[in-house]
C-alpha cells in the first residue's frame, strides 16, 4: 500500500498543521472534525454482534471527543447482516461528502460486496469483525483490525491437540457465507498440516434449525474433536443439539463463536467450546479493566470481543485522522496504512503491508458457562 505519512510528518514538523487549520474538517481550535459512517448488523438473528460493536464505538467516541484533538460524529446504519442492505447503507454513506471513512460492515459476507465499492470510490473502510481470508486484499482503501481466522484457528486447534491428544476430527460449516466458508478452508488446511485425520465434512445453511442428520453421522464416526465454522445463532443450536444427542467431545469454533450469545443460547451445552481471540476481559491490565468498568456502567453488561474490537477501531481511526490533519478521505487512507504499534485494549496492533492485522491470539475455553483462558 502507498503511504504519504512521511510527508505529513514533515508538514506538521514545520508548522503545516496551522496552515491546514483553515481547511474543511478543521475547527478553529485545531480539532479534526469528521463524520465516520458505521455499517452494522443491528437487527435480525445476529444483532448481538452489531449491538456490541455499536456500543464499543459509542464509548470510544465519547472518550475521543472529550480529549479535543479529534471530533468524530458517528453516522450509524443497520445492515441486518444482509449484503444488499449493507451495500445500500454504504452507498448512502459514501454519497455524503462529510463522511471521511467507514467502520464495518460486521460480516465478511457483507464486506465482500461493500469493500470493492468503497475502494472504487476512494473511501477508507475498516472492518472490526471481518475475519475471512482476503479482506484487506480487496484494495488499498480496505482495512480491518479484527484477528483473521488464519491466525486464530490454527492457535485454537494446536491447544486442543495438546490438551486432548486429538487425532481424529469432524468438520461442520455453513456453506452459504463468506466467513463460515473461509473459516472452513482454514480449519481443513490446519487439520491437514497438523496431521489430523478428517473423518467427515458436513455442511449447513443460515437459519437452519435441525442438525440431526449431520450430527448423527458425526457421532457414528466418533471424533476426538469437532471443528465448527458458524455464526453464533447456528453455532449455539449445533452445540445444544450435539450435547442432547450425547456428543460430549470438545468443539473448536471460529470467530462466530466469540460471542457470549453462544452461552446465552446453548447454556451448559456450550461448555467445552475452544476459541482463539485477542480479547480477554479478565486480563490484569489497567486499560482493559478501565474499559470493562466504563462499559458495564454505560450498558449494564460486560463487553465482549466485538465491543472491544470496535472500541480499538475507533481509536485507530482517531489516531489516523489526527495524523492526517484534516477530514480528507485520501489522507485518512494513507494515515491508516501507517498505523504501527498502536496500543489498545486488544494489545499491540499494527497493519502489515497489505493492511492485514499483526496481533497475537489467546486461546479460551468455555467452562462452567464462562470463557476462561485455556491453559
Ligand atoms: C466474519 C466474522 C463474523 C463472526 C462477524 C460477526 O468473523 O463475518 O468475518
3D structure, described in words:
The chain is an alpha/beta fold. The chain has two domains: 5-147 and 284-358, Rossmann fold (3-Layer(aba) Sandwich); 150-277, 3-Layer(aba) Sandwich (Rossmann fold). 44% of the residues lie in helices and 21% in strands. Strands 7-6-8-9-10-14-15 form a seven-stranded mixed sheet, with helices on both faces. Strands 2-1-3-4-5 form a five-stranded parallel sheet, with helices on both faces. Strand 3, helix 5 (108-121) and strand 4 (125-127) form a beta-alpha-beta unit. The protein is globular. It starts with a helix and ends with a strand. Residues 1-24 have low confidence and may be disordered. (3S)-3-methyl-2-oxopentanoic acid is lined by residues 49, 106-108, 129-132, 179, 231, 255-256.
Question: How would you summarize what this structure contains?
Answer:
The chain is α/β, with parallel strands linked by helices.
Q: Provide the CATH topology of the largest domain.
A: Rossmann fold
Give the overall form: globular
**Domain module tally:** 2
Question: Helix and strand succession?
Answer: HHEHEHEHEEHEHEHEHEHEHHHEEEEE
The CATH class of the largest domain: Alpha Beta
Topology record:
Layout: H1 5-13, H2 16-20, E1 32-40, H3 47-67, E2 70-78, H4 83-95, E3 99-103, H5 108-121, E4 125-127, E5 142-144, H6 149-164, E6 168-174, H7 178-193, E7 197-204, H8 212-221, E8 225-229, H9 232-244, E9 251-253, H10 261-266, E10 273-277, H11 286-299, H12 305-324, H13 329-337, E11 342-344, E12 347-351, E13 357-358, E14 362-367, E15 370-373
Parallel strand pairs: 1-2, 1-3, 3-4, 4-5, 6-7, 6-8, 8-9, 9-10
Antiparallel strand pairs: 10-14, 11-12, 12-13, 14-15
Helix pairs in contact: 3-12, 4-5, 6-7, 12-13
This protein binds (3S)-3-methyl-2-oxopentanoic acid.
(3S)-3-methyl-2-oxopentanoic acid binds at residues 49, 106-108, 129-132, 179, 231, 255-256.
Amino acid at each position: 500500500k502507498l503511504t504519504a505519512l512521511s510527508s505529513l510528518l514533515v508538514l506538521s514538523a514545520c508548522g503545516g498543521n496551522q496552515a491546514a487549520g483553515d481547511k474543511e474538517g478543521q475547527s478553529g481550535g485545531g480539532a479534526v472534525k469528521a463524520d465516520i459512517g458505521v455499517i452494522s448488523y443491528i437487527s435480525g438473528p445476529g444483532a448481538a454482534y452489531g449491538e456490541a460493536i455499536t456500543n464499543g464505538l459509542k464509548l470510544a467516541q465519547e472518550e475521543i471527543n472529550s480529549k479535543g484533538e479529534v471530533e468524530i460524529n458517528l453516522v450509524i446504519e443497520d445492515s441486518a447482516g444482509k449484503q444488499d442492505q449493507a451495500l445500500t447503507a454504504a452507498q448512502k454513506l459514501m454519497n455524503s461528502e462529510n463522511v471521511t471513512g467507514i467502520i464495518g460492515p460486521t460480516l465478511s459476507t457483507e464486506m465482500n460486496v461493500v469493500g470493492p465499492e468503497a475502494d472504487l470510490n476512494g473511501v477508507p473502510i475498516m472492518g472490526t469483525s471481518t475475519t475471512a481470508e482476503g479482506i484487506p486484499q480487496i484494495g488499498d482503501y480496505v482495512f480491518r483490525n479484527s484477528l483473521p481466522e488464519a491466525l486464530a484457528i490454527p492457535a485454537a486447534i494446536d491447544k486442543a491437540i495438546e490438551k486432548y491428544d486429538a487425532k481424529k476430527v469432524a468438520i461442520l460449516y455453513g456453506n452459504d457465507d463468506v466467513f463460515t466458508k473461509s473459516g472452513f478452508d482454514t480449519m481443513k488446511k490446519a487439520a491437514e498440516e497438523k496431521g489430523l485425520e478428517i473423518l467427515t465434512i458436513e455442511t449447513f445453511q443460515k437459519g437452519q434449525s435441525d442438525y440431526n442428520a449431520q450430527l448423527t453421522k458425526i457421532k457414528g464416526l466418533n471424533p476426538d474433536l469437532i471443528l465448527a465454522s458458524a455464526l453464533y445463532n447456528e453455532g449455539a443450536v449445533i452445540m445444544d443439539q450435539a450435547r442432547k444427542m450425547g456428543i460430549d467431545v470438545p468443539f473448536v469454533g471460529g470467530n462466530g463463536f466469540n460471542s457470549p450469545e453462544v452461552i446465552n443460547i446453548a447454556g451448559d451445552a456450550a461448555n467445552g467450546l475452544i476459541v482463539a481471540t485477542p480479547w480477554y476481559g479478565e486480563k490484569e491490565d489497567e486499560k482493559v479493566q478501565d474499559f470493562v468498568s466504563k462499559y458495564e456502567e454505560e450498558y449494564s453488561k460486560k463487553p465482549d470481543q466485538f465491543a472491544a474490537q470496535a472500541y480499538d477501531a475507533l481509536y485507530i481511526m482517531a489516531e489516523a485522522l489526527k495524523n492526517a490533519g484534516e477530514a480528507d478521505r485520501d489522507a485518512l487512507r494513507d494515515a491508516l496504512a501507517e498505523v504501527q504499534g498502536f496500543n489498545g485494549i486488544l494489545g499491540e496492533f499494527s497493519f502489515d503491508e497489505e493492511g492485514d492485522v499483526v496481533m497475537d491470539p489467546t486461546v479460551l475455553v468455555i467452562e462452567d458457562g464462562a470463557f476462561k483462558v485455556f491453559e
